[in-house]
Amino acid sequence: MLSRQCQNKRVRANQQLKSKKIMQNITASNPANATDRAFGTADIQLLVVDIDGTIAGMSNTIRKPVKQAILAAESRGVKVAVATGRMYRSALRFHRDIGSTLPLICYQGAWIQDHATKKRLRHLPLSKQTALQLLDHFEEPHLRPLLSIHFYIDDQLYVPEITAATRMYAERSGIEPMVIKDLRRDLPGEPTKVLALCENPGVLDGLLSSMRLRYTPAELYLTRSVATFFEATHPVANKGDAVQYLAEELLGLQAGNVMAIGDNFNDVEMIAYAGVGVAMGNAPDGVKAAADWVAPDVEEDGVVAAIEQFVLSDR
What average pLDDT does range 270-298 have in this prediction? Predict the structure, then answer.
């Protein structure tokens, strides 16, 4: 387990990368400007893609043009990895679908596992104490009727009740939730991630703001993966730190060798880390502001355009 000093150092490094990328941004409002920037496209050796809103849209599958573009990138010698907020079991079919041979980054980077060997390379769970503190906050009278609460432990989903939002989540993820009515008493372990769902994004805006006042980045990583999902993980469990670990420690690469594509706030850290950071056209403005280039919408196969622009282009 990382020491608190090491955790704080890596959190600060990610924040500095994010700030630097935002200051350098030139394309959030006009992606075409990116063609004038001297990207070292020949140096890209690792392509990292998010799943939902990036390689998979409303259909919850990867369309054929996206698969073909990823295969073309691999034929150029570029390795491809998946980085997602999904559970490992839920993300695995997408990982297989694109033929990735690299470890799968899931739970925002809190869990990294090599599918071929079944070896889990990194696991950064929350402490039970922190998880129960979050539960206390979620169950405050003004929030409890509005939220669906999910705890992820050992790649299992535990919930206090099955709500409509939980049923929709289970259908899309292919995961059967397990009901534990008293999470405080019967929590079976340390959660890899805690999720609160709400159909009203404004409620989660307020929740995120209040929680960021309560916890520093060195204590808890807080993000939104979609407008209706509030997520909490270990302070260094974010996609930026995970991609850096994959690139530098496992593959011997540098940030300049990495291209990362994502569509939401949980992708900002990896977009900021990568030498070429791409936001999808369906991304919020704040995510686009951290990117070097903005691709078309996921339903327009924006990943294909990004791969053609920065990996397959011979210019």
Answer: 97
Does an H or E element contain 279, and which? Answer: strand 276-279
Does the model's pTM come out above 0.85? yes
Q: What is the pLDDT of residues 207-265, one digit of tens each?
A: 999 999 999 999 999 999 999 999 999 999 999 999 999 999 999 999 999 999 999 99
pLDDT of residue 145 exceeding 50: yes
Torsion of CA 148, 149, 151, 156, to 10 degrees: -30
pLDDT of residue 42: 62
The pLDDT of residue 313 is 84
User: d(Cα 236, Cα 280) in Å, to the nearest integer?
Assistant: 24
- CA 203 vs. chain centroid, Å, equals 21
Long-range contacts of 34-43 (CB under 8 A, 24+ apart): 34/292, 34/293, 34/294, 34/309, 35/309, 37/292, 39/275, 39/276, 39/292, 39/310, 40/256, 40/275, 41/276, 41/310, 41/311, 41/313, 41/315, 43/256, 43/257, 43/275
Domains and CATH numbers, the chain: 13-25+40-124+237-312 (3.40.50.1000), 128-233 (3.30.1240.10)
Identity (one letter) of the amino acid at 162? I
What are the angstrom distances between the C-alpha of 111 and each of 104, 242, 249? 8, 9, 16
pLDDT score at 220: 97
Helix or strand holding residue 95 (H, E): helix 88-97
Among 273, 271, 315, 314, smallest CA distance to 295 is for: 271
Question: Which token pair is 128?
Answer: 């039970």
